[in-house]
Design a protein that fits this description.
Blueprint (H helix, E strand, L loop, with lengths): L3 E5 L1 H5 L8 H18 L3 E6 H8 L4 H11 L4 E3 L3 H11 L5 H13 L3 E4 L2 H8 L7 E4 H9 L3
Parallel strand pairs: 1-2, 1-4, 2-3, 4-5
Helix pairs in contact: 5-6
Protein name: HTH cro/C1-type domain-containing protein
Organism: uncultured Desulfobacterium sp
InterPro entries: Cro/C1-type_HTH, PIN-like_dom_sf, PIN_dom
């Protein structure tokens, strides 16, 4: 069976550092931990990118940044900046995706990731309005339910 290749949006990496007293955030954090466990066991392949590293480097909380960097080290693939990503992100911006969101989607497409996973409702709504995305996208809860647990 082919291992799934996933690209996690930066908000997913940051979820464990958000307010865990909120049920949704806590649930998304638990799902992230399950995904991390699967990555560590070699059951999922994780894609990293220049965009994720850049965004993480801007994290004002140094300890959080370092922990996220540690998680990113378990990636099996790294996507570097190139002309295709620039051109693709500009094209995606025409459909309403902006800045880093467009770049992350372009990176996930370039990696031929099976799934782009986010917990950003605003981004998810924008993705739903775009016809020409070359990747399947999920919010983190739906991903674990539909693709991992097959519920």
């Amino acid at each position: 069976m082919k291992k799934l290749k996933i690209y996690l949006d930066m908000c997913v990496y940051n979820r464990p550092f958000d307010d865990q007293l909120q049920y949704r955030i806590n649930t998304e954090t638990q799902v992230f931990i399950i995904l991390l466990s699967m990555i560590l066991k070699g059951e999922l392949n994780l894609v990293n990118s220049f965009a994720l590293r850049y965004e993480n480097s801007k994290n004002p909380k140094i300890e959080n940044m370092l922990r996220i960097s540690d998680v990113m080290e378990y990636s099996t693939e790294y996507i570097s900046y190139d002309k295709w990503i620039l051109e693709r992100s500009i094209e995606l911006e025409k459909y309403g995706l902006t800045g880093m969101d467009a770049i992350h989607i372009a990176c996930a497409e370039k990696a031929k990731a099976d799934f782009f996973i986010t917990c950003d409702d605003g981004l998810f709504k924008k993705l739903e309005r775009v016809d020409k995305i070359g990747i399947v996208y999920y919010n983190i809860i739906d991903f674990i339910s539909k693709e991992v647990f097959k519920i």
